[in-house]
Structure formats: structure tokens, C-alpha cells
Design goal:
With about 250 residues, the chain is an all-alpha fold. It has ten helices and no strands. About 5% of the residues have low confidence.
């Protein structure tokens, strides 16, 4: 394909991905009232623990409620949440368009992995979001407790949902790391030996990245972010080695 043909192909794939995102966003906008309670559950859980720890008197529990500080805030948080839901709902189409864009550079055998790639991409993204949902309360408890008794948690809807959605998408993308490395191994860009030699640098980069992604200052949350990245990196080395061994056998 010429450069112009590549650009037209990219435009076509991006357009389809954007349409999928918008359709998913419309679904997200409709279901937003139903999922809001699920989204603020980690905040409620953190407040319950915080209230039990620092309440002056029995029954002095923190009220689980988010606040809109500007007239447009309820609408803006609904749009943000809808787009993230749209990213998840439209994920299969988006991942498929990505795969179809790069398949001309793959062999006929490697193109057969399109459906498994799309399915695994969606599954890993969902697992990342689910993992984030489990550890966000831990991070919130630490963040909200750092100020002590004199600082009452008073989170706006925009502040909390931006924090929650950012963390969820970050974990979802982290869980895509093994698929990215396996794909690079499939097309011959990286090899198992190369990944092994780069392991010390990769560890430092992943820990630093985890420190930037996680806004908390505790080692537990940092471990929960960096731990899966390190595990996925090791699994990717194993997968790259298996791919190379399979290619050597086919070449005999």
C-alpha cells in the first residue's frame, strides 16, 4: 500500500472506532443513573471505614454524597462517565479496527488470531477495571485519612468521578500490556532475549509509571499497580519464547 492508501485506511478505521465510541457513549448516557450507585460505592466504603476510625461519637458516620459545585458539573460528569462506558461497550469494535489496521503486515496464519485478540483485549480491559474497583477504596481510605480529624471529606462529583474513572482506565490499559508485547513478538519487533535483557530497565520504568498513575503515597497501592505490570512482563517473555520456538519448528 502507498502512503496515501495507508492514510485512507487509517481514517476509515478511526472513523469506525469513533462511531463505536459514540454509540457506546449514548448507551452510557442512558444507563448513567443506574451505574452511578455502583461508581460511588468505593467512596461510600472508604467513608464508612474513615467514620469508624475518627468519629467523635458513636453514630457520627460520614454521609456518602457527592456534590455539584457548578451548574454544569452534573452534566459534565455524566458526559465523562458516558464516554468511559462507551469505551468499554465499544471496545470490541475499537480493538477489531486496530487489529484490522495492522493485519496487512501479518502473515495469513497470524491473521487468524483476530477474534482471540479482540476477545482477550476486552477481557483484559474488564479485568483491569475490576481490579481497580477492588483497590480504589484502599487508596481513598489513605488519602482521606491523611488530613486527620479536622479535615472533613467534601468531594465534588467531578473530582471523585474523574479520580475513579482515570484509575479505572489506567488499570484497564495496564492489563493490556501482555497483549501488546505478545503482538510485538508475533510481528518480530521484540524477542524473548531482548525482553530479558531489558528486564532491569523495564522494572524501573514500570515502578515509576505506577507511582505517577497512582495518586496515593502508600506502598500497598503502588504494589497493586506495579505488581500486575511486572507479572505481565514475565508472562510476555514466556509467550515470546513460545512464539519463537513455534516459528523455529515450522522452519525445519
Amino acid at each position: 500500500m502507498t502512503l496515501g492508501e495507508h492514510l485512507r485506511e487509517l481514517r476509515s478505521r478511526l472513523l469506525r472506532a469513533v462511531i463505536a465510541l459514540l454509540v457506546g457513549g449514548i448507551v452510557g448516557y442512558i444507563v448513567f443513573p443506574y451505574v452511578l450507585e455502583l461508581l460511588i460505592a468505593p467512596y461510600c466504603s472508604a467513608l464508612e471505614t474513615l467514620g469508624a476510625d475518627v468519629a467523635a461519637e458513636p453514630g457520627d458516620a460520614r454521609e456518602c454524597r457527592l456534590y455539584g459545585l457548578t451548574p454544569l458539573e452534573p452534566f459534565s460528569v455524566r458526559i465523562k462517565t458516558s464516554l468511559v462506558i462507551g469505551l468499554f461497550v465499544g471496545g470490541p469494535v475499537i480493538f477489531y479496527q486496530l487489529w484490522r489496521f495492522i493485519t496487512p503486515g501479518l502473515t495469513k496464519r497470524e491473521r487468524r488470531y483476530a477474534l482471540p485478540f479482540v476477545a482477550l483485549s476486552q477481557i483484559m480491559f474488564a479485568l483491569g477495571i475490576g481490579f481497580a474497583y477492588l483497590i480504589i477504596p484502599q487508596g481513598l481510605r489513605i488519602l482521606l485519612f491523611l488530613g486527620g480529624d479536622q479535615i472533613e471529606p467534601f468531594l465534588s462529583a467531578n473530582a471523585y468521578l474523574t479520580f475513579f474513572l482515570t484509575m479505572s482506565v489506567a488499570f484497564g490499559l495496564v492489563f493490556e500490556l501482555p497483549l501488546v508485547l505478545i503482538f510485538l513478538a508475533m510481528v518480530g519487533i521484540v524477542k524473548a532475549d531482548m525482553l530479558r535483557r531489558a528486564r532491569p530497565y523495564a522494572i524501573v520504568i514500570m515502578v515509576v509509571a505506577a507511582a505517577f498513575i497512582t495518586p496515593t503515597t502508600d506502598a500497598v497501592t503502588l504494589f497493586f499497580m506495579a505488581g500486575p505490570m511486572l507479572l505481565f512482563y514475565e508472562l510476555s517473555i514466556l509467550a515470546a519464547w513460545l512464539i519463537e520456538r513455534s516459528r523455529r519448528r515450522r522452519a525445519l
